TrEMBL record:
Gene3D superfamilies: Homeodomain-like. It comes from Kineococcus gynurae. Keywords: DNA-binding, Transcription, Transcription regulation. PROSITE patterns: HTH_ARAC_FAMILY_1, HTH_ARAC_FAMILY_2. It holds the Pfam family DUF6597. This is Helix-turn-helix domain-containing protein. Residues 159-257 form the HTH araC/xylS-type domain. Signal peptide: none annotated.
Length: 267
């Protein structure tokens, strides 16, 4: 998929990682599926850092036992230390699936909860035991279609708003999105919070930061002041502060860490 590494802080650290478009029958329940797989030598740890999308993810992941986790939207960079051999199959959820799985998405902000969903867990785990992520995604998609009602007008409106806020670089303020959608800013805020757990402004900030990190690591000659201007930051200092707040390092240090497609490994 296009932009498969958007939101991943150090792509060079990734184990095998794939994003799968949602099958047509499930495309109104989730945006895409993501599947990492890893097989690390004894004593080796791979730290994966992510500036996640401002949305909820439903994840089936390996372990003893295999678990199903509903992860809420994040307001900061997160990480997971991978060891041994394992896998995960996740779905970035749309509004209809969020409404079917959780009453208050804001309560899951920066946290997650485990769900007892054997009808999802078992077929996905069976496919991954065969090392067949495509079959795992197909099983996951079937479960979503069977378990989650098709979106109604409200959920469809929430998805349209989220897509605009997360994907359209011309949307620099919530007012821009509200005007494009023909609703008030207050209506937009209620709609987005109810189905994502974060505000429209937070969605814009996260998209802008993801794009900034992608530009910084992929173009070593890019002028940071120009990047800041193009992405709607007030100035370079604003970009620097945003990157430092989320990653703990300024843009220059991040660029140096990713030069050559690699980053220092965690101990």
């Amino acid at each position: 998929m296009s932009g498969a590494h958007r939101g991943i802080v150090y792509p060079a650290r990734l184990p095998r990682f794939e994003r799968f478009p949602a099958p047509p029958e499930a495309a109104d329940r989730c945006r895409w599926f993501w599947v990492p797989r890893w097989d690390l030598p004894p004593g080796r740890t791979s730290r994966q850092q992510v500036v996640g999308f401002p949305a909820l993810n439903l994840v089936v992941q390996s372990g003893e036992p295999v678990t199903v986790e509903l992860a809420g939207p994040t307001t900061r960079a997160g990480h997971r230390d991978l060891v041994g051999t394992g896998w995960a199959v996740g779905a970035l959820l749309r509004a209809a699936a969020v409404a079917a799985l959780v009453a208050e998405p804001e309560a899951l902000r920066d946290r997650s909860e485990f769900l007892n969903l054997p009808g999802l867990r078992d077929p996905v785990a069976s496919a991954m035991a065969r090392d067949d992520p495509a079959a795992a995604v197909a099983a996951f998609a079937r479960w979503l279609v069977e378990r989650v009602p098709a979106p109604g007008p409200v959920e469809a409106s929430a998805d349209t708003a989220a897509a605009l806020l997360q994907d359209d670089p011309t949307i620099l303020r919530p007012e821009d999105a509200a005007q494009r959608l023909g609703v008030s800013v207050r209506t937009l805020q209620r709609l987005v919070r109810r189905h994502s757990g974060v505000s429209p402004a937070a969605m814009i900030r996260r998209r802008r930061l993801q794009e900034a990190l992608q530009r910084i690591r992929s173009d070593s000659a890019a002028d940071l002041a120009a990047v800041a201007t193009e992405l709607g930051y007030a100035d370079q200092a604003h970009l620097t502060n945003d990157v430092r707040t989320v990653l703990g390092i300024p843009p220059g240090a991040y660029r140096r860490a990713t030069t050559g497609g690699s980053a220092p490994q965690s101990p």
